[in-house]
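During the reporting period the student researcher (J.K.) took over the structure-prediction task from the postdoctoral fellow and processed the backlog of single-chain submissions. One of the processed entries is reproduced below for the supervisory committee.
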Amino acid sequence: MNLLRLLVLLLLAGGVYLIVDGGIADKKIEQGIEKGKEAALEVAEMLEESQPDSNSSENKETLEFKGSLYQWIGKDEQSLIEAFGEPARKDASAYGFEWWIYNKDPEKYLQFGVQKGNIVTWFVTGKDLEAEPLSIGQDYASVQSIHEFKQEVTYTDGIEQFTFQLTEEDMKSRPLVKLSDSVYAQLYFDTFTQKLSSIRVMNAEVLLKQQPYRVTYRGELPDNPAILKKEWAAIENGREKQIFDITNRIRLRFGKEPVKWYEPVAEVAFLHSKDMSINNYFSHYGQDGTGLKERLEEGKVTYVRAGENIAAQYPDAAAAVEGWLNSKGHREALLHEGYTHLGVGVYQDYYTQNFLALP
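J.K. obtained the following structure tokens:
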């Protein structure tokens, strides 16, 4: 008997006792309690039937995309709610907007950046996902036939001019496409398969704030908002969750089981990110020579196998994961079929994810 059935039974049986207590014969009381028990079981069964089964495929939400996703920049949040419903959560960002996270579909993942009630950016990834006019998994040449890839992409605002200069590696892994005078798309490719891994679309202001490429300009770059310590904590927490979500979508894309969140190792990962940031270094080994093994021991984390990915100076969580996917060693950890759990720790622009196989 589960907790719900027991609770209803106790309440109804107790209710019958209170009603019949007070001068009624014992036999009547016993009969009343028995009837109460029967009624309680019937009500509990009815309530159980009405509860959604979290393991049922009918309870899984599917993200449905109607029309071009490119249309969303500039639309208001009410339009977003009407199309996709309320988000699973809202995460802070470092760029003045709030991420609305849609992650209920286990194979598809979508996040919208909302600022002052309007959509200023979005990011999508997953498996077999149509994002008209493109689709996740589409090969590089096919995407290039739809969008021309250039090594220099320019945004002009009056007399101000900003030119983004892409390296050869940028052209292979994340070309930048100008969709309109003020809307741009970053197309992330898996360079091992040469297939489209994810899509990010943003307005010019977000692009200039994030500066994911080298930029030359005439004019002034927009300022990013000053971030207080308590605000960083919210941003870091959001980035950790986003890395977890995106990691599992990528694992599912390659036929790997999703990993589960493991808080003890997330704390270990956070402390390593913080140490790298504060002491201005970037390595799997601390300045005292200790590595992941020693950090897990200090955190009292038991495991059978462990692996670690680190990244720094990426503008956000999505960019960091796509970077790991295109690095051989990091990719192996990301897609290792033996890992069952994951903890992510982000400190400002330093990222650590620790994978585990638990005993």
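The committee noted the following: The two ends are 30 Å apart (CA to CA).
J.K. will present the remaining backlog at the next meeting.
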